[in-house]
Amino acid sequence: MFAFLQLMIPALVILTLVYIGVSLYSRSVRRGKLEAEWDEEGMTGDRDAWITEGLRDYDGSLRRKLILGVYVVPFTLMAVIIYLTNFH
Q: What distance in Å separates the CA atoms of residue 31 and residue 33, rounded to the nearest whole number?
């Protein structure tokens, strides 16, 4: 059990850092696309409010949820490898 924790705790820390990085990058890309769309279409009104609304929509999107795969995929692979190594 101790060896399992020695593997999982550093993995969780590293994956959290990766998740934060990917999440911030994805959000900045979405913000850039919203800003480009505003400029391209020549919209009028409150630009910041429109971008904020677009980012709020992004927060509930499937893409945002898929980023959680940063945790799911590696932990699943580790669990499968540990199971196959020890019990198969």
A: 5
